[in-house]
Hints:
Shape: globular
Main location: membrane
Membrane topology: Multi-pass membrane protein
Structural class: mainly alpha
Helix content: over 70%
Keywords: Membrane, Transmembrane, Transmembrane helix
Pfam family, one: TPT
Transmembrane segments: 38-58, 70-93, 99-120, 127-145, 151-173, 216-238, 277-296
Amino acid sequence: MGEMPGFQLGVIGALFLSVASSVSIVICNKALMSNLGFPFATTLTSWHLMVTFCTLHVAQRCSLFESKSIDMKTVILFGILNGVSIGFLNLSLGFNSIGFYQMTKLAIIPFTVLLETVFLKKQFSQNIKLSLFVLLAGVGIASVTDLQLNFVGTVLSVLAIITTCVGQILTNTIQKRLNVSSTQLLYQSAPFQAAILFVSGPLVDQFLTKRNVFAYKYSPIVLAFIILSCLISVSVNFSTFMVIGKTSPVTYQVLGHLKTCLVLAFGYTLLHDPFTMRNIIGILVAIFGMGLYSYFCVQENKKKQSVDLSLGSQLKDKDTTPLLAIQDKESHEAKKSAKDSLV
């Protein structure tokens, strides 16, 4: 129990770092892509991961954390899966309308719940499901506009949902089952994620934008924003693995929708994006849903802790009572044997 306050503080810190860094990088990338005309999102992501790995390698060499060996096959498959999921998300955005892309991101939560329920036998209470429904409804109202469907875009969205959900569930499962930290897992898997995106990124970007990333004329201000984006990405990638490892994939997705609401609000405040009453209502509903989700999670955790303590106390009593009884019986038999031998 003495470790619980420290664990909760670590969770709060991870959540705050994830929100702050994600909102910062979205604003930075929006300025880079919209205002400065650098549209190569997948290639930029590969640079993010390479800088993240290099930063972690320096930290490991400076003994800031200890590298832990993980089965190479697991790491490679995990890294490739995460890299592919990013590629599918970017392709989904390229082939679909903004509204349908937002619906794709919304579908990740219920699909994650479904996968964890079916394959991991995880139970979600009705209160948690209700809060998630309110949250998704709010984000949908705030961010989903048009829903233009097409076959290729729908297939890409389904693949993006599946790979993203499986990747995030594996992030949580690997950390807990192999007893590795978020830093150790990210350090091992980042090179493979970076490699798959470094190879496929320029092709995906050229297919979506009809422009070549290597033919782009890099001005000093564009380079400055790219460097800033890469530096922020170290914090984004680190906090992502930390949040999923300390909480759950569903909680991370809930946090992701909080970021969406914050990005909408910051976009209106700092970048003067169009903002309507519908956006305001949707954000308020989403924040209410997040509050419900947080409240029900805290209540269920408290209930689980009290049950664990009660079971622990019962097991302790059950374990000690027979032992005392055996000792008393053995003592009684020893005394009786000594008395018999004296007679």
